[in-house]
Amino acid sequence: MTMTTTHLNKKPRLENNTLVNHFDDLPDDLIISILCKLSSSASSPSDFLTVLPTCKRLNRLALHPLVLSKAGTQTLAVTAEKWSDSAHAFLKLCANAGNADACYALGMIRFYCLQNHGSGASFMAKAAIQSHAPALYALAVIQFNGSGGSKTDKNLRAGVALCARSAYVGYVDALRELGHCLQDGYGVPRNVSEGRRFLIQANAREFACSLRSYISLKSEEGDEEMLLTDLSAVPVHEIHPVNRFLKEWFGPGRVGLAEGLRMCSHDGCGRPETRAHEFRRCSVCGKVNYCSRGCQALDWRVKHKMECTPLDLWVAAAAAAVAMEEIGGDGEAVVIDDDADDNHAER
To answer: What residue stretch is flagged as signal peptide (predicted)?
Structure first.
């Protein structure tokens, strides 16, 4: 009797030399669930779109309406430099799938960049119906300015109503805008105390956002020592990808604005005028202009406060204060109001 031995390290031969593809055995529901997680958590469009050319099945399932409806803000963060018909089609697919972020992004791009005001406002309205806070506020700004139309198309009451809805869901820019509207009686009966309450809420939310960003930054650096004075170096909130797109689109060397049109001077906005003299300008220097009172207040706090008021006025105020202390006089000193943003820009 002859015995056959098999080497221990030798792998057994597969019958018919075939390999089993377990991927084909996975149900579509499971793959769609995984792709939904990916689309909602991707840090950039490329993180999600690289799945498409992998195979025909993944390409088909990645474009499933349920997957596209879950796409997050960063997944939809298309840049102006990479804008193309394909990017436009991708955003439209997501918007048609009911994705509120996609409706907002496509609406803003169409309204301001492609100058298709009708369809742009329509897409933003689809997002607003889903209580999408930035879309509600964007429509409020359009109503306040009469954007896409004439000066007579302004609807202050509609703007306040949209702003109030956005503020109700906690949007900081809307809280600030509504606070100034109430303080000024702009489109709503004047109520200074209620307006101040909304402004305090906006500042509190900003501070909480800055504190979270600061704690996250310190934890990444491994530094446990925390100083509140360092919070000034932390941005209040990150610029929304749509606002970044607008800034890039109308940036140097790209699409230029028509003659007589200006951009909002707040660095975190990016909105352009749709007609001449649409935005409110600074009533002191007349060199900057803003699409909203919220942008004006933010820019005043960050930089324009030092750029607008002439240096000699600050020196004169300081000299007058010192002189009063020395002589102990009863005269009035020149005072620079830190809250000058309350009545600083023209409507």
So the answer is: none
Q: Considering only CA atoms, give the Rg of the chain.
A: 28
For residue 92, count CB atoms less than 10 angstroms from its CB and return exposed for 0-12, middle for 13-18, buried for 19 or more: middle
Residue type, 73: T
Q: Give the closest residue to 148 by CA, choosing from 261, 230, 3, 29.
A: 261
- Element spanning 281, H or E: strand 280-281
Strand partners of residue 281: 289
The CA-to-CA distance between both ends of the chain, in Å, stands at 106
Query: At 308, is the secondary structure helix, strand, or coil?
Result: helix
Global confidence as pTM: 0.79
Dump pLDDT digits (tens) for 139-153. 999 999 999 998 899
* Cross-strand bridge partners of residue 282: 345
C-beta atoms surrounding 128 within 10 Å: 25
- Label residue 107 by pLDDT band (50, 70, 90): very high
Which residue bears the tokens 């002191």?
Answer: 284
